[in-house]
Amino acid sequence: MSPRTIQRNSRPNTTTMAQLAAWFLGTSVTVSILVFIVLFGQLPAFGAGPLGAANRFILHDIPSCLSSLDRRICGGKLCPIVMSIGDGLMNKKHPLVLILYLVLMTGGSYLFLRNGYTEIPNEALGSKHIYLIPLTILLPYVALYLAASSDPGFISSHNHHTAMSLYPYDQIIFRAVPNPEECRTCRWAKPARSKHCGLCARCVAKMDHHCAWINNCVGTRNTRHFLGFLAANAITLTYGTYLTYHVLYLKMSGSDEDQLWVRWINTMAEYRELGAVFILCLMCSLIMIGFLVAHMYLIWAGTTTNDSLKWGDIKYALKKGTIVVFDDEGRGSPTADYDATRWPWGGMKGRRRGVIAVDADGNVPEEIRDCITNLRDLENIYDRGFLRNMTEVLWPPKLMANMLNDHTALC
Ligand SMILES: [Zn+2]
Ligand SMILES: [Zn+2]
């Protein structure tokens, strides 16, 4: 028996490994698709398509089906328990997800340093990687600190007036007819593009979303740090994929008669810790790049995650015919009471249009002159072109009218 045969026989069965790899790959792809549908299925771009339908099926149809099953089988006792656990995890601010991120990132880095870093330099990876690797591992931690500790643009009584002047109401996704909507918790008029975060219990200017990974809101003041966090993770994880791939590739052995992917799977099975780091880096880098691209798309489109959900509602309503549109030329600005000196930076594009819903009886207001059914006929006044949108993200308008007072108010 040759040494080569002995080595191959000591490895896990090739067919079993191939099945395991296929199962893992299938599961990973399915989970990634489900996460994407849940997070982005409500965006206007997907709302009317199969992704939007899948989103509604997962978030509305399945829970209501389970609820009716619970009522029939358990007398409705199970749902409240599940809901309260889910409520604690989903609707209360806690650092569990942030801790999970730190465990995964630190654990992955440790496994790589123990199994991969010691193999460098080698014939594929030069000595420069010895210095690059520690810096790249540190990058996400610095980005996380900035994103998690930064003020997203919390609105206080001291800066509410400033927040009101940041953006005008477009009368489409942020309406102020006859008056701006009031935040029922903070008891003040909601500034355009703001949203009250139930987890942080604060209104946030130009709210994007509350991110569990950074345990903080993403708003006008820290979208740049959030983008930095996504970019840092995308860079580190892609670099980690590249490094582990090369280290594993050099360790690859086996018979030349075997297909390359079979030898690759066997190598990952033999060097399991490094194989796990490779798979973790590969999957998470794809997800992070996906998030980064999605957020760059939002900036390009002049929206936020919160804005785009509202655009999705408008699109749906237009399709159903429950919203009609009319020219609002000559209408008094609802923001006239506020010093809207910050907008528009460079002038409006074209003529604005307003949106108003039909009343409960389905009656259409008399002044309507134009009726449209397509979202493209509506102007997004917050979209000022990619470069200006990006500039606004990187150098956000100051929100704090009085830093000292506001800081005191926040404390
Ligand atoms: Zn509020
Ligand atoms: Zn929040």
Automatic annotation (TrEMBL):
* Compartments where found: Membrane
Recite the UniProt keywords alphabetically.
Answer: Acyltransferase, Lipoprotein, Membrane, Palmitate, Transferase, Transmembrane, Transmembrane helix
Is-annotated flag, keyword Transferase? yes
* PROSITE patterns cross-referenced by the UniProt entry: DHHC
Q: Where is it chiefly localized?
A: membrane
The segment(s) forming the Palmitoyltransferase DHHC domain are 181-311
Membrane-crossing residues? 20-41, 96-117, 226-245, 274-300
Q: Which GO terms describe its molecular function?
A: protein-cysteine S-palmitoyltransferase activity
Biological process annotations from GO: protein targeting to membrane
Query: For this protein, what reaction is catalysed?
Result: L-cysteinyl-[protein] + hexadecanoyl-CoA = S-hexadecanoyl-L-cysteinyl-[protein] + CoA
Where are the coiled-coil regions? none
- Is Nucleotide-binding set as a keyword in this record? no
Classification via Pfam families: DHHC
Q: Specify the protein's topology with respect to the membrane.
A: Multi-pass membrane protein
Q: Please state what class of enzyme this protein is.
A: transferase
Q: Which InterPro entries match?
A: Palmitoyltrfase_DHHC, PFA4/ZDH16/20/ERF2-like
Q: What is its EC number?
A: 2.3.1.225
| Family the UniProt entry places it in | Belongs to the DHHC palmitoyltransferase family.
Q: What is said about the domains?
A: The DHHC domain is required for palmitoyltransferase activity.
User: PANTHER family recorded for this chain?
Assistant: PALMITOYLTRANSFERASE (PTHR22883:SF488), ZINC FINGER DHHC DOMAIN CONTAINING PROTEIN (PTHR22883)
What's the protein name? Answer: Palmitoyltransferase
